[in-house]
Amino acid sequence: MAGNRTFTMIKPDAVADGHIGAILAKINEAGFRIVALKMTQLSKKKAEGFYAVHQERRFFEELTSFMSSGPIVAAVLEKDNAVADFRTLIGATDPAKAAPGTIRALFARNMGENAVHGSDSDENAAIEVAYHFAVTELFA
Ligand code: CMP
């Protein structure tokens, strides 16, 4: 079952730019079921914990400051092949390189403020879901 779930966040840029509804519509149109959803603001510490694998990167401070700068929408999505299919739907990390019609091509500002996060493996999806949602908040 883990292979059928991924975790996403609509990032502070896309929330501020008014794209929550359009992004959720794209997600549904692509065949994902939303099984958990919440609007929240990450503390700096919570963002640092989420992105701990990137803590040695030069952009870590910028990334965690940005991700805690305003509200986000966190969600758990279900679909066959969820992780890979969602990464196809969102497009490349850098929106300038993202395929036309992808969520990042349509809604992202730049490489750092890139509209959405998507898990990069089934293992990380499970970790990220558990980091943001209690079992009682999942409606499979
Ligand atoms: P995300 O999928 O959330 O996972 C890590 C994030 O780091 C990535 O999206 C980008 O937003 C961010 N990131 C990656 N490379 C850079 C960079 N060179 N400068 C700023 N942010 C970056």
Spell out the blueprint of helices and strands:
Layout: E1 5-10, H1 12-16, H2 20-29, E2 33-40, H3 44-50, H4 60-67, E3 72-78, H5 82-90, H6 103-107, E4 116-118, H7 122-132
Helix pairs in contact: 3-4
Bound molecules: adenosine-3',5'-cyclic-monophosphate.
* Distance between the first and last residues' Cα: 11 Å
The 3D shape can be described as: globular
Poorly predicted tracts of residues? none
**How do the strands of the widest beta sheet line up side by side?**
2-3-1-4
Query: What portion of residues is helical?
Result: 25-40%
Gross CATH architecture:
2-Layer Sandwich
Domain module count: 1
CATH class category name: Alpha Beta
Fold and architecture overview:
By secondary structure, this protein is of the alpha+beta class. It has one domain: Nucleoside diphosphate kinase-like domain (Alpha-Beta Plaits). The chain is built from seven helices and four strands; from the N terminus they run βααβααβααβα. Strands 2-3-1-4 form a four-stranded antiparallel β-sheet. Helix 3 packs across helix 4. It is globular. Adenosine-3',5'-cyclic-monophosphate binds next to helix 4.
Name a few traits of the molecule.
alpha+beta; 4-stranded antiparallel sheet; 4 strands; binds adenosine-3',5'-cyclic-monophosphate
In brief:
With 140 residues, the protein is of the alpha+beta class. Helix content is 39%, strand content 17%.
